[in-house]
């Protein structure tokens, strides 16, 4: 029986959590503990809800808007390369499954839709997993030929120094209107004239790919080869310009700090285009930059699927889009060694960055000691779970997902966990049960943890593995 209460006895805050029933002229409220309030909005959770409160509580941080934060400075640096594009920096992170996946043509069985990868509030509502979730709406609003959307995005993922369940992306797009061409000019000509306006650079770009490829990277119905060649050139030149700006800034930061063999300041920047696949573009590419001895994937992009523009009510437009991760770029610009630092409010971190000063390499405060601890456990064998056991409390080899371990670590330890990794795994030859061993590195970025603290964290981590996943500790 759900309790009902007199409305008047509740504060405005509490009312916001409640469904109001009108009975016999009196408002009563049913407190539904499954409701989730995010800033001024309320969502009804259901059995799909898998978003922990530690994630919800970080939603208001909006690091991409925090003055002098490296993520915000990185955003501004990229924005400065697109002076005519309209910026959208305040879009709310809760979106529908329709916006995040369906509108972009994600197949029904795409792994990204699974509850192991995505934070759901209920069956049809998620925390956006990428800024592309706003493409269709932004095209529909039709406010500018070019736009940039920067925002926090959310994914269930590994725990290590380059992964955090909240990170930041920038989405960019540029469209041209087939029905608004100057008299006598073709679509492709119009686009090529815009290509000529993009600043020139002198770096070496490897681009061995054809502009499209009938099997690997096809043209879409209704797009001519000339049109896609022109838009592809505009896309690639625009993004090369961004990368030149970013990596020149990164190189001067490296040079200021003294050259290292990996980053000789006079070595020219090398970038290359590779073919890619995204459900929402065709043809598609990724841009990679040679940095510190490795090819680094920097962004994804392509020619926008016409169905997205058609469904958004602008079938006369064609164009391109890209998506870039801001945190990784900021880490590389400033030599930030651990993504958790972005969430630090320690002035020793924040005071090192300024949007008006040249980019300088981050000087780490002393590195506090690591503390490694292992936990080994048995999963239930898939067959033994058949007997009507509660699904929540039993994780069989079949439905075990590593991201669940990661999330428990984050939930228990917050930012005191640096890394969680699988170090051993085997199947018992007789029982068929699977054993896993995970090694956790407990380390604070701001101080030395005491033994008691790490023991206590590890104890709770193990206990939660048992309670939430139903594993058996060894
Ligand atoms: N949404 C993609 C991701 O999160 C990035 C991306 C790739 C965005 C290609 C785009 C694009 O707009 O065209 O991985």
Automatic annotation (TrEMBL):
Domain of life assignment: Eukaryota
Protein's cellular compartments: Mitochondrion matrix
Recorded catalytic activity of this chain's protein: tRNA(Phe) + L-phenylalanine + ATP = L-phenylalanyl-tRNA(Phe) + AMP + diphosphate + H(+)
GO biological process: phenylalanyl-tRNA aminoacylation
Occurrences of domain Aminoacyl-transfer RNA synthetases class-II family profile (ranges): 151-364
Listed EC numbers: 6.1.1.20
GO MF term (any one): ATP binding
Keyword Secreted attached: no
Pfam families (alphabetical): FDX-ACB, tRNA-synt_2d
One Gene Ontology cellular component: mitochondrial matrix
Domain FDX-ACB: 366-474
InterPro entries linked: aa-tRNA-synth_II, aa-tRNA-synth_II/BPL/LPL, Fdx_antiC-bd, Fdx_antiC-bd_sf, Phe-tRNA-synth_IIc_mito, Phenylalanyl-tRNA_Synthase
Keywords: Aminoacyl-tRNA synthetase, ATP-binding, Ligase, Mitochondrion, Nucleotide-binding, Protein biosynthesis, Transit peptide
Keyword presence, Oxidoreductase: no
PANTHER family hit by this protein: PHENYLALANINE--TRNA LIGASE, MITOCHONDRIAL, PHENYLALANYL-TRNA SYNTHETASE
Similarity annotation: Belongs to the class-II aminoacyl-tRNA synthetase family.
Function, in words: Is responsible for the charging of tRNA(Phe) with phenylalanine in mitochondrial translation.
NCBIfam families noted in UniProt: pheS_mito (TIGR00469)
The protein's name: Phenylalanine--tRNA ligase, mitochondrial
């Amino acid at each position: 029986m759900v309790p009902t209460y007199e409305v008047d006895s509740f504060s405005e805050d509490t009312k916001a959590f409640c469904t109001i029933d009108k009975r016999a002229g009196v408002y009563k409220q049913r407190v539904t503990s499954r409701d989730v309030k995010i800033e001024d909005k309320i969502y009804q959770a259901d059995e799909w809800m898998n978003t922990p409160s530690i994630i919800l509580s970080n939603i208001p941080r909006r690091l991409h808007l925090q003055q002098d934060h490296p993520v915000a400075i990185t955003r501004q640096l990229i924005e400065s390369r697109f002076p005519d594009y309209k910026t959208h920096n305040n879009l709310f992170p809760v979106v529908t499954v329709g916006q995040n996946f369906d509108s972009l043509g994600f197949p029904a069985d795409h792994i990204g839709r699974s509850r192991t990868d995505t934070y759901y509030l209920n069956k049809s509502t998620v925390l956006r997993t990428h800024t592309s979730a706003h493409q269709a709406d932004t095209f529909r609003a039709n406010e500018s030929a070019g736009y940039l959307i920067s925002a926090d995005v959310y994914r269930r993922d590994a725990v290590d120094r380059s992964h955090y369940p909240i990170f930041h992306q920038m989405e960019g797009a540029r469209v041209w209107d087939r029905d608004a061409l100057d008299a006598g000019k073709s679509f492709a000509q119009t686009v090529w004239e815009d290509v000529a306006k993009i600043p020139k650079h002198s770096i070496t770009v490897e681009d061995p790919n054809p502009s499209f490829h009938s099997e690997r990277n096809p043209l879409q119905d209704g797009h001519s080869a000339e049109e896609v060649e022109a838009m592809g050139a505009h896309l690639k030149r625009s993004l090369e310009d961004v990368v030149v700006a970013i990596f020149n800034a990164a190189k001067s930061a490296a040079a200021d700090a003294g050259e290292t063999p990996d980053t000789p300041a006079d070595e020219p920047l090398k970038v290359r285009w590779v073919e890619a696949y995204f459900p929402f573009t065709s043809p598609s590419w990724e841009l990679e930059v040679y940095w510190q001895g490795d090819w680094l994937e920097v962004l994804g992009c392509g020619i926008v699927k016409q169905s997205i523009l058609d469904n958004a009510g602008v079938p006369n437009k064609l164009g391109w889009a890209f998506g870039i991760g801001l945190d990784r770029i900021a880490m590389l610009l400033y030599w930030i060694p651990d993504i958790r630092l972005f969430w630090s409010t320690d002035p020793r971190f924040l005071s090192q960055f300024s949007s008006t000063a040249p980019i300088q390499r981050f000087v780490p405060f002393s590195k506090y000691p690591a503390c490694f601890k292992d936990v080994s456990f048995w999963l239930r064998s898939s067959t033994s779970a058949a007997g009507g056991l509660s699904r929540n409390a039993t994780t069989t080899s079949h439905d075990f997902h590593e991201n669940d371990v990661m999330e428990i670590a984050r939930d228990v330890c917050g930012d005191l966990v640096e890394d969680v990794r699988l170090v051993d795994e085997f199947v018992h030859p007789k029982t068929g049960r699977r054993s896993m061993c995970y090694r956790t590195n407990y380390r604070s970025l701001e101080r030395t943890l005491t033994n008691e603290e790490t023991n206590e964290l590890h104890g709770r981590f193990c206990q939660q593995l048992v309670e939430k996943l139903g594993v058996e500790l060894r």
